[in-house]
Each structure stands twice: as structure tokens, then as C-alpha cells.
């Protein structure tokens, strides 16, 4: 079943986070991830507001988790640590 990788982010260091984004995109694409929302308009209805929201679609939960654990994504993530506050989850799509 396909899955969504959903990230809610508050950026605290734009330069370092920019390097993360530069490296993360190719890492996600290499694992079959396709961005369907990336920092666009949103309405916060409940919970903690984080101004950057990203959604990518993967073939499965396993594919998304494999991407997260990959060397390429972990290298990108080093730039996000300390440069952002993030919540990240993977949710299976039940069609």
C-alpha cells in the first residue's frame, strides 16, 4: 500500500536547512518518493503550528522508512539537526 511521508518543520537556521533541502530532495527521489506538497499554503486547525509542511508519496511505508534510514538521507539530515524543529511521520494510505 502507498504511504505518505509528512513533515512539519520550523526552520531556525535557514542557511543550514537549505543545505538539508538541497540534499534531501535527491535522496527522497532515489527511493521513489514524489513530493506532493512542499511549503505551500496551509491552515493550522489543531496542534502545534509549524510553518513548513512537506508531504511526499512513497510506494509503501517500508520504502519511506528505507529512505529515512539511507546513508544519503542521513547525510542530508545532519544539516537539519540544530537548524530546525521537526515532526516527521509516515502514514499508510488506505484507499
Characterization of this structure:
The structure is a single chain. The mean pLDDT is 96. Helix 1 packs antiparallel against helix 3. The chain has three helices and four strands; from the N terminus they run βαββααβ. It has one domain: Alpha-Beta Plaits (2-Layer Sandwich), CATH 3.30.70.100. 38% of the residues lie in helices and 32% in strands. It has a four-stranded antiparallel beta sheet. It starts with a strand and ends with a strand. It comes from Sagittula stellata (strain ATCC 700073 / DSM 11524 / E-37). InterPro entries: Dimeric_a/b-barrel, DUF1330. This is DUF1330 domain-containing protein.
Which key features would you list for this structure?
DUF1330 domain-containing protein; Dimeric_a/b-barrel; alpha+beta; 95 residues; 4 strands; globular; 32% strand; 3 helices; Alpha-Beta Plaits; 38% helix; DUF1330
CATH-defined architecture:
2-Layer Sandwich
The CA-CA distance between the termini, in Å, is 8 Å
Average pLDDT confidence is 96
User: So what's the overall shape?
Assistant: globular
Domain DUF1330: 2-92
Protein name: DUF1330 domain-containing protein
Short précis:
By secondary structure, the protein is α+β, with helices and mostly antiparallel strands. Helix content is 38%, strand content 32%. The protein has a single domain, classed as Alpha-Beta Plaits.
Write the layout of secondary structure elements.
Blueprint lengths: L2 E9 L2 H17 L3 E5 L13 E7 L2 H9 L1 H10 L3 E9 L3
Antiparallel strand pairs: 1-3, 1-4, 2-3
Helix pairs in contact: 1-3
